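Reminder: ligand-aware prediction takes two inputs, not one.
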Amino acid sequence: MTETKIKTRINRGYRYIPFITLSELKPRVWITLSGCNFKCKGCFSIARDTVGEPMTVEQLISLIKNSASEYYEDTPLEEAVITGGEPTLNKHYLVDLVSQLKKFVGWIVLDTNGHLLDDAYLKELIEAGLAEVMFDLKVWDEKLHEWYTGHSNKRILANIRNAYGKIKLVVNTVYIPGIADDREIEQIAKFLAEIDDKGEIDYRINRFRAELSYEKISRNPSPEEIEHAYSIVAKYMKNSVIGKSCVRERKIGVKRGWITVFPDGTLKGRTLDDYREENKRRIRKRNAAVI
Ligand code: SF4
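Here is what comes back for the chain with iron/sulfur cluster:
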């Protein structure tokens, strides 16, 4: 299907869904809305491209309800994380999705690059029942941000500033050696500390995964590099953490796994190792297509 046909379909009330994911640890669902307005060079999400099946909000809600009740039985969903790709591409769809989820989910989180999330959009989402926003702030330097994503970060910074005090806020940065490293992360931490005098924003540093990146732009950071960035952030912010995908938490040795639910309702258990293998296969296929 062409880009134009996909956009028309999205505007007509559909989003393309490759899968949703149920947690094995607690009643929580990740809802992946594919397609993105950014072209991050270091992206490692399968959902950057428009992939999966077109689904209306009603179809998606029924997939979530049916699979959650099959897997968790009578236990209600505690949390839903709406992610992508980029979930904000169709405002009407996202607001409707949040308000439908609010009827049966305790806590609703939006994971976004933040570019489109202006005051009016955020207000509608909060009224619909959104409880938390996770902004991905790639880098501080505007020119570097344009090179990395294809867009300026001015609107994202303004949208984070606007969201402060209105909703629970988490900001994520992926540590990419030579690109998003100490200098960039320190500037971001200063910016967040300046708008957050109460220490309410959580700032999370995640680890770059070179083997999954769309373009070969850097290498994997060492644990020491991440720890060093963390120590810089801690000078400015009370609530900085190293992301779950990072080395510190992996030392705990918990074998992580998820249940993937496909648009046709099929459930499949997958571990972190399965995801890695699937991602590698996807990248090999994509590289072969480019050649
Ligand atoms: S915003 Fe997220 S999904 Fe979109 S290209 Fe960037 S990293 Fe990938």
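The chain is about 40% helix and 20% strand. Confidence is low (pLDDT under 50) at residues 244-253. We will return to this case in the review session.
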